[in-house]
Write a structure and sequence with these properties.
Radius of gyration of chain B: 13 Å
Distance between the termini of chain A: 37 Å
Number of helices of chain B: 0
Distance between the termini of chain B: 37 Å
Order of helices and strands of chain A: EEEEEEEEEEE
Strand content of chain A: over 45%
Number of strands of chain B: 11
Structural class of chain B: mainly beta
Largest interface: A-B, 20 and 25 residues
Number of helices of chain A: 0
Strand content of chain B: over 45%
Mean pLDDT of chain A: 95
Radius of gyration of chain A: 13 Å
Oligomer: heterodimer
Largest sheet of chain A: 6 strands, mixed
Shape of chain B: globular
Low-confidence stretches of chain B: none
Helix content of chain B: under 10%
């Protein structure tokens, strides 16, 4: 089983749509979780940390289900500028374990 | 807003040559990392570094690789004898002692011919 598994997409959605990404992880001892965004040939940029209680930052909502080892990211009111690859990331000891990413394309 | 910087942005080298990739982390970060991303693949952990010592390294980080922080600001990754399969983007990252979020530099694209 892969350590961090994501649907690679692509997800093609119109502006204004709501889109959800899911991710599962294999190490039940993992304690910290993140969503990063990566534009083509650029560095991963931290989008948000994911907390057990769920957290929201503007149009973005992240949820964590420890029992199912499942992480989600919801993007509301998609913008053209949201087009990127979204990386589900789990911290294992002190290192980050990345999923392969889910590609999002928002069209006008 | 402070940023991680990396030089060079692109390095082309011949197989067997040594390369040094440089990073200047954010000044109040105390934990440092190198990751790599082969084109079309996921980001992979190479090594973590704290208090002038390697904390953890992956299987990728073999005897050909080394890291150091020679002057308290630069953080370097050296590959002694490059192989074709070392061609990748190399990202430096850092974090505060009080938080787990890691912040990445823009990367160095290494091309081994």
């Amino acid at each position: 089983r892969k350590e961090v598994e994501q649907d690679p997409g692509p997800f093609n959605v119109p502006e204004g749509a709501t889109v959800a990404f899911n991710c599962t992880y294999s190490n039940s001892a993992s304690q910290s979780f993140f969503w990063y965004r990566q534009d083509c040939r650029k560095e991963p940029k931290l989008l948000m940390s994911v907390y057990s209680s769920g957290n929201e930052d503007g149009r973005f909502t992240a949820q964590l289900n420890r029992a199912s080892q499942y992480i989600s990211l919801l993007i509301r009111d998609s913008k053209l500028s949201d087009s990127a690859t979204y990386l589900c990331v789990v911290m294992d000891t002190d290192k980050l374990i990345f999923g392969t990413g889910t590609r999002l394309q928002v069209f006008p | 807003e402070p940023e991680v910087t990396q030089t060079p942005s692109h390095q082309v080298t011949q197989m067997g040559q040594e390369v040094i990739l440089r990073c200047v982390p954010i000044s109040n970060h105390l934990y440092f990392y190198w990751y790599r991303q082969i084109l079309g693949q996921k980001v992979e952990f190479l090594v973590s570094f704290y208090n002038n010592e390697i904390s953890e390294k992956s299987e990728i980080f073999d005897d050909q690789f080394s890291v150091e922080r020679p002057d308290g600001s630069n953080f370097t990754l050296k590959i002694r004898s490059t192989k074709l399969e070392d061609s990748a983007m190399y990202f430096c990252a850092g974090r505060l002692a009080s938080a787990y979020e890691q912040y990445f530099g823009p990367g160095t694209r290494l091309t081994v011919t």
